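## retry 2 of 3
previous attempt timed out at serialization; input unchanged, resubmitting
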Amino acid sequence: MSLIVWGVWGFTARVAAASIGWREMTVLASIGSVSSMLAFALLTRPNLSYPLGAFMLAFVVGVLGFLGTPIFYAALERHPSAIVIVVTSLYPVVTIILSTLFLGEVPSPRQVIGIVLAIAALVLISSEA
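## retry succeeded, writing output
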């Protein structure tokens, strides 16, 4: 379901960003996001009593997620969605590198091959014919 929702999100983000601009897109999409978050909180009633360190880390996750958003919308306004979506969809490569460096997680040979193939796909999709 995430794949489908995020796929539709990427398409509609491209259409909207081309129509209204990345700054306006960031503000209006954030209003939609906050509205959805409030509805989610009311429906699920999450437990928010955690140690300060965990709370702050989750807060930083939200800040980082938001900071990527206007950059993403600005890219969609200026470049073809096929390229922007593919480039940004490779964010797990950054996660894998950081996890290897700081958490001691080692990608399997199959995962390394997957990373190489994903980067090759990016080169093929983004290059002119």
